[in-house]
Amino acid sequence: ETRKATPGVGLISPPPHHDIYSIEDLAQLIFDLKNSNPESAISVKLVSEVGVGVVAAGVAKCKADHILISGCDGGTGASKWTGIKHAGAPWEVGLAETHQTLVLNGLRGRVTLETDGQLRTGRDVMIAALLGAERFGFATAPLIAMGCIMMRKCHLNTCPVGIATQDPVLRKKFEGMPEHIVNYLMLVAEEVRVLLAKMGFRTMDDAIGCTEALRMDPSLRDSMLNFGPVLMPAHLLPDAGKIGRIERRKLYGQDHFMITQAMKDRNLLQAFKATFRFGDAVYSDGHKLTNIDRTLGTLLSHELYKRWGNSLPPGTCHAKLEGTSGQSFGAFALRGVFLELEGDSQDYFGKGLSGGTVVVYPPKQAIAAGFKAEENIIIGNTALYGATSGVCFVRGIAAERFAVRNSGAWAVVEGTGDHCCEYMTGGRVVVLGGVGDNLAAGMSGGVTWIWDVSGQVRRRAIPDAIDIGAVNAQAAHPTYPQELQDLHLLLKSHFDFTGSAVAEDILKRWPASAAEFTRLFPADFMKAIERAKEAGRPSPLTGIDELLPRPGKKEQKHAEHAQRPSRIRVVKPTAPTSGLDIEDIGTVFLKGNRPKRVEDVEQVAKSSRGFMILDRAELPKRDKADRMGDFQEILAAKDDLQIRTQATRCMDCGTPFCHQSVTLKSGCPLGNLIPEWNMLVSKGNWKEAFHRLMKTNNFPEFTGRVCPAPCEGACVLGIIDDPVGIKSVELSIIDKAYEMGWMKPMPPFHRTGKRIAIVGSGPSGLAAADQLNKKGHDVIVYERADRIGGLMMYGVPNMKADKVDVVQRRVEIMRQEGVAFVCGRAGHIGSVQDGAGGDSISLGPSAQELLDKNDAVLLATGATMGRDMQHIPGRELQGVHMAMDYLTMNTRALLDGGHVGKNWRRWWGTGNLDPSQATPIDAKDKCVVVIGGGDTGNDCIGTAVRQGATQVINLELLPQPPEQRARSNPWPHWPMVFRTDYGHEEAALRNGGKDVREFCVTTKEFVGDGSGRIVGIKVVTVRWDSINDQMRMVEVPGSERLIRADLVFLALGFTGPEHPLAEAFGVDIDRAGNYQALYQHVAGDFRTANPKVFAAGDCRRGQSLVVWAIREGRDAAAAIERYLQDPAADQTALDALEEANRTKIAAAL
């Protein structure tokens, strides 16, 4: 409504904008605005840049009241990244220059100076004040205080926190309160008060412009930066005071009306006293104009609006004027104002017309003498600029840019220059003559008719978005049936008000002459009209009846009326808004009531509203009762249409948090291009989505199955709704690639001859091997287990990731691409090992042999040392096992048997030919207790259920997590909330529907049966109390009890890697027990104390996620690549970094 736009029609350049081509244009605009509201202060915003001071001086002379210097760090957040990063200069530079220039020119006392651009603290305010600012603009910080998350899509009406949106559904999500901003600004004000006191200032006014109180940071004195010009006090400059007085802040106002005392508007105010008093219709003539009479009718409109609003009928105040008017004749003229000019006018004729009527025609004496108005320019450039309503009749030619950004006015003109109807969004325009170039460029609404007898306009280059055609006098236009009536009314009115000879000639031949007109009708505007008609809404094609004065006898109407209008301002009630009110949303868009799958996915994707109208859906799992009897994958068949539907829930965030690790606890460490492949999947472009996915993730078939999805925890949609099912989409993409044959071996085109040995075949080692192999290096992976895959092979059970169809399939592709794998004893790095009976068993190569035969070695062994409970009495009892040992033995037995279906037990472990391997642990008919949560604990629960455990209990030391995020766990960090995984679901089904987890329980003793076998666990309930601002565990008296247990699995996490390998390679161990390697995002990262040995993954960073292991492997591969290209340069960079660190430590000491 405010922008006078048509719903469903895009705006290339919205009507309220104003073009400034010169300082004179700015002065005229300020004068116009001051007349439209004399009580207002006129503010001009300038971008901080070198030279802004000269511009600001000109703005002050144009009589602006307020100047804003905007720094480069501000903005709406919806700009392009290049604009956000590279436009403008810091506000400090522009502010200092502006203040100094204004002081030197004696202009500082006239204007208020403000600055903005990421002001956030009281220190920022004080620096701005000392540099000369009196006001300080805060935007980003208060928005964040209200809940803004800087999604940077303010222009799309999809703000998830309900701030930058008019959508009633999203507005309900807004949780901000005025107190949030008040509290924030109170803190800023308190810091300012403290700084003022420290610096000796009593008030802010005393501090403004006192740049001498600022000092440059001593650490920057030896740099190339010269802060002298910025920190120079303006009042101490050599030329200060030569022009005017030395002033540091605004002391008096601009003299806006120094030259307006004799304005014709003041005469008009006197002439229309009856209208102001009673609302009478008045005709006033005899007003002579010259070219210094600018902005005529604007002050009159202002005073009328204050008294009557928009309630006056058209033509109530009819002023007859003669001569040559100055600029902005009839600017912002209100409905009820009728300005009739016999003469000519300059630029900005009818600018911002707001319901009034403006008419201009040549003097009657000139017409009688043979002057042809249709051949001469009668008004200047930029007439009817930004008009929103009203009527305009011009007998003569308008110069350039006629009706630019017109959004509702009806006009007739007898010829125009270039750029006619540019960016027009509404209204009607009739041109009874020639038109210049660039006709209707950017026009998106309204209708233009051009009297085109020769048909030349139809042969010109008109934008494709414009439907151009001849008016049909015999049949009505299907979208605009009243076209002929409106065109005829405009022509007749033009003749009635101006006496136009051209209009008279056309009307004499009507309706035959209608075919001589060419119509310009924007295509999107036509569609919007048709949609409104189908929906039963009012048509965007409004009529002219409420705008057009009734031509009649021009006489003064001061007679007393029988019934005078009320003196109370009359305001017409606004039409009811379409759509749902905020309080009446009901359950239409509530979570749980929306579909999860739609047929017309592409239509939803185009709307960018999928996140509002769709519910989240996970990948379907097999029925719990069915899957508990086998070790096949728990996922059921995928529905491509459902996956595409879920991909449309992606919000197209301007600043996605899902694909970046803003902190170590949020987002995807791999930087997966999540928004891109979500969009591609929603459109059905699976292959391109696969290519985007593989750019950043070597093993999406792993992460799509076992990753806990920190990307979903950081999803912007997760703030207000369930997050996008990113993990489901990722897995569906890679599975589709295997299905379609897109995932196939791609060996490198050439080999470099460089050899790299990688110890460990977990996700980190495999990712590094894949990356280095793509570079053409010869890579060999050593794995001491009997199968390649590390954690993915034996640490994750088969029902989460199938070992044959997922892990070995991917390893085989790498093998075909040229990666060599050595596993089992041959892959165990060492010399000899004592065997049974004192025999020696040969193992793989020694550490020294690897160093001698390879150009680089990468240690990616993972964190294999499980956290134990050796301090608990009874830990040595039989039946107490480490969780990873249990999972590894079970998976190996399944793979040896070759069956994971319902008959898995018949073949379980039967293919094992290695007598050194221990017998797998079987939980059948046993009571199982799993101590510890997380993925490993859940996997133990799921495995025990499948093996036939009679009872499964899961003990966790910490309290049960909340159902929703706690205040101490803000977005976008990983949400620490209560979750139920597949193992918990299955165990609960066997436990009568009750969850098997017990929280706040600690183990006191493992109880044996006297023969060395466990029969129970003595536990006690604990509570967590805050003691000295730290959470302390306190046992609850009387809560000790005994839990029966035949098997206990310790799933307590991992302490780090095994150390003998580090000793063999000469690698240091850090304080956390991990392999010490450089990791500061610089050259030399992942290097250990041995220059040829690198470390990556959990063995370097400690236990973590699969996705972090892949990230480490990729980064380590890049580091090895740099090392292989120039080992000396890499070592030099490493030495320089070490020297810098020593210097910092020495300085600190």
Q: How are the SSEs placed, and which strands pair?
A:
Blueprint (H helix, E strand, L loop, with lengths): L22 H14 L6 E5 L4 H10 L4 E5 L10 H6 L4 H14 L7 E5 L5 H9 L4 E3 L2 H7 L21 H4 L6 H22 L4 H4 L20 H4 L32 H8 L1 H6 L3 E8 L8 H11 L8 E8 L12 E8 L9 E8 L2 H5 L8 E3 L9 E6 L2 E2 L8 E7 L11 E7 L13 E7 L14 E5 L12 H16 L2 H8 L8 E6 H13 L65 H7 L2 H4 L10 H4 L12 H8 L26 H9 L3 H9 L5 H7 L3 H4 L12 H15 L14 E5 L3 H12 L3 E6 L7 H5 L7 H15 L2 E4 L8 E3 L5 E3 L4 H7 L2 E4 L5 E2 L13 E3 H15 L6 H4 L19 E5 L2 H14 L3 E5 L26 H9 L6 E2 L2 E8 L5 E14 L2 E6 L5 E4 L2 E4 L3 E3 L3 H6 L27 E3 L2 H4 L4 H20 L1 H22 L1
Parallel strand pairs: 1-2, 2-3, 3-4, 5-6, 6-7, 7-8, 8-10, 9-11, 10-12, 12-13, 13-14, 17-18, 17-22, 18-19, 22-34, 24-32, 25-26, 25-32, 26-27
Antiparallel strand pairs: 14-16, 15-16, 20-21, 23-33, 28-29, 29-30, 29-31
Highlighted features:
38 helices; ten-stranded mixed β-sheet; alpha/beta; single chain; five-stranded parallel β-sheet; 1149 residues
